[in-house]
Amino acid sequence: MAFTIKVNGVDRTVDVDGDTPLLWVLRDMLGMTGTKFGCGMALCGACTVHLDGAPTRSCITTIDSIGSAAVTTIEAIGETPAGRKIQNAWLGREVVQCGYCQSGQIMSASALIASNPHPTDSDIDDAMSGNICRCGTYVRIREAIKQAAQSAGQGG
Ligand code: FES
Ligand code: FES
Predict the structure, then answer these.
(1) For residue 155, what pLDDT is reported?
(2) Which of 3, 96, 116, 136 is the most exposed place for a label (fewest CB within 10 A)?
(3) What is residue 72's three-state secondary structure?
(4) What separation in Å is there between the alpha carbon of 155 and the centre of ligand 1?
């Protein structure tokens, strides 16, 4: 069955079963491999994208559930104000180690900053607790989110 979804501002039509996870549509059909597969069960956060700005696990989000919601992926998050701040802070704090989890981390952090420009430690913990990093970059992630929040306060 054909489904048309809006991905990074562009309508994309794919012919798949309705229960196909968005993750596989992005990676296998649209060639957007920045979004990663980790667990496939909404337990690790590697596959996080935004649906209408909300962080969403694409591994358990079926194509027939998306409707008109706008899908944003790591390929385009840098075009949003919050995503740009987060990516700059990630570079500034040298957050990344192996990198595998980082697309999902950045998508969750960007959604946090967009909805809450000055998060507390508790807000950060709540927003990021579903994103697992086997390299243990959690301390730098927290520092980078705080740096991005400070830049938000400066209007940057
Ligand atoms: S691959 Fe989706 S949460 Fe792990
Ligand atoms: S940077 Fe390696 S899993 Fe997070």
Answers:
(1) 44
(2) 136
(3) strand
(4) 33
